[in-house]
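Chain A, query sequence.
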Amino acid sequence: QVVDLEDFEPSEVKDCRLAVFLMSTYGEGEPTDNAASFMKWLKNPDGELDNALAGMNYTVFGLGNRQYEHFNRMGKVVDADLEKIGGQRFFTLGLGDDNASIEDDFEQWKDEMINQLVAQFHPSAGDGGGKEDASEVAIPEIPLRVVEIRSKGKVAPAKLSTDHVQSSTRHYFTAATATVAVNRELRSAKDPGSTRHMELHPAMELDLTGAKVPYHTADNLAVLPENDDASVQRLAAHMGYDLDQAIKLEGVGPSFKHPFPSPTTVGHALKLYCDIHGIPRRSTVVHFVPFATDPSERSALAELTAKEGRHRFKSLVEDGKRSLLDILTEDFPSMRVPLAHFLVLCPRQQPRYYTIASSSSLHPTSIHLTVSVITEGKPNGGVHRGVCSTFLQRLEVPTGRSPQLPQCQVFVRDSSFRLPSDAATPIILIGPGTGIAPMRALLQERSFQKSRGLPVGETVLYFGCKTRDQDFLYQEELEQFQAEGVLTSLEVAFSREGKAKVYVQHLMQRDADSSRMWDMIDGQGAHVYVCGGTAMGTDVGKVLFETIVMKKGGRSTADAEKYISDLKAAGRYVQELWA
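Chain A, predicted structure.
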């Protein structure tokens, strides 16, 4: 039995005798949304669960990324907390690292775990017989069927309660529609890259719980990306799908939950809900083996997706940046997948999160984003494009008296960026590149506070870009904040203007800067905010620890570690980083 932790029942957990927990970590060491209630229950705040799991044998596998500070925190916490309330660990905690190969980590752990499980609980079980032909993979069973329906005009999806939709894709049902009012380039024509400034106006639609969709300064906005029409048409033509056909999903069995809204059209389903451009995992591609109609292709794909073929899969697919669309239509052109199976086996299109670049006080009805458009070269000379950033780039605002403005689906998620309750408290902002987004929001909020007569504390910003005339994002706005007295000091690291590359952490190491930062943090209670890539966050953290706290503060290694830990616990050192 497989149970989504959102649907867990305490009585069922207590009665379970053998359990395997798969735990993912989100953000700064937090549980995913569907595991939040379970984690709260497991913490046993009232002591009611003492020895409640005495009859349970368990093991835990964590899914994480070693680039993040709180690597696999949820897996580690669940492993420890289950033991605290009586659970018996029958196999060691597994830690998957998505920065390397989380599939390899899981397979190795799973094989060893199953051996231990059989030896401990089923010692008389056999080895399952001889080796099977890998190319004779059975067509997988799926939990739904696709029913074609007749429809005149626009197809409207059925209204469903949250109990009847999958928790992992609930956003498909609850997201608000946002109108794109502004979509402009922030970089100069000298820069071949692209960073977009966007202003969205979300409709205050009701979600399934009846709550509206407000936001707070520097929250996170999730955008639901859409595949481009040309790719959807290419897939449909290859597979023989009718994009205009109206369909509805019907479950097979009483426990069925809808993965996405229906009735809908085939084209709509492929465009909004199927991740055809992402680089797929080997465990995903293996399910498509039976649908290669050419025996030689079927055999080749079976070998590629077998455990023994993982190194070749990494070389050809992962390093080659081959999307699922590429694999199914180009690499193995005899592939013909029935629509129902494709809609189940294709990974779901995931929302992308952007830290909001606007103040809700200054812009209560619009949300601003700073979007770096991702383009990467492929080994074969092609271009791999970021699905969501490219989608947002395409949402150009037409000109004219009454233009039809483009739209997208969005929802808001809380951020850890919050200004101090006292506006007079100093703040240090560190946000190179698109990490400037929440800093712009906080500066707008400071400007709003100042316009209301509040005494605003010292504000220092460290920003980084390549050159002054290429990608100095929001330069005029930042200089205006300085002129208003909102931004006390603007320190910019131009990484490509000199012989040596200079980044924000190098500016922080300067004697005057490190002295000022120590005085602001230790003497004035300043809050520190960091946003950007994990590598930058690590380097900034190292400077804060070694140069500022140990050197300028005169702290020992142990005292400096505690000092930094206390800053984080008090919400005075906040990071939002991405790999």
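The first strand starts at residue 18 and ends at 26. Confidence is low (pLDDT under 50) at residues 204-212.
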